[in-house]
Amino acid sequence: MRDTRESRLLLVLLIAVAFALITVDIRGGEDSPVDGARQGAATVFGPIESGVSAAVDPVGNAVSAIRDSGERHDRLATLEKENAALKARLGSDDRSRSRLKQLDKMLKIAGQGQYGIKGAEVIAIGAAQGFSWTITVDVGANDGIKRDMTVLNGEGLVGRVTTVGPNTATVLLASDPDFTVGTRMESGDELGFASGQGDRPLRVELLNGKAEVKKGDRLVTFGSQADRPFVPGVPVGVVSRVDPSGGGLTRTLYVTPYVGFTKLDIVGVVVEAPKKDPRDTVLPPKPKPTPRPTVTVTVTPSAEAPVDGQNQQEQ
Hints:
Helices cover 35% and strands 24% of the residues. By secondary structure, the protein is an alpha+beta fold. The strands form two sheets. The chain has a six-stranded antiparallel beta barrel.
């Protein structure tokens, strides 16, 4: 374009219009009348800008990676710590599942026997107040616990409460030599008294010296007057040995308890006795006998054995 008067006037006019548009855009702010035109331009030129940016970004990313490498290392260490914590939590979850299983079995016994129980956790085990086989549980007088209440778990009889504090209680275990509980044989009325022998089976003296008893028979608690210290029907154990009857007034049995007294965790204190004796309903199902395979031996005569007639001809 040649430098003429008309071209100079056009240039001045375009500059004036540009300044006018800039002034209108600044004063309009977010409601600027040229905002639509700006968006249209962005639509047209945006892909071009993105392409240029994509060509330049790898260099910027490399610089950022070098700058952020320290932060990433710290993040990796944090993730490793989180994974270790997760593994530890999974381990504790396994224990939680075990405890929930114990609680479920205990609630099943409570439901079958219609016992009102207060669940508790064993927080200590060992000698206390002169007793050699005791546990301490985390419930006490504030939870309605009283002396001479029956304690059980998902397996059977654990013991009885001997001492009660505001928030804890001491339980004398059935394995303690000073422990005695009245028992009744399953499916019968043979009564006796079971005494603890430490880590050995319970010793039971049946009142009937001529009672018919065999290995594998089971016993439950007989119960006490006013249901304290023992409620009736709580599983005690299985007969493991019967002393020969010597014609005495009593007969001695040895009973393997259902409860493992060295691995107690979740127990229940019976705060409400059943309205009627549950008898044998709380006992677990009897184990099914294991079938023994029978072997039949058939003797077949040997083909090489000589016949009597042939022997006579040979002679």
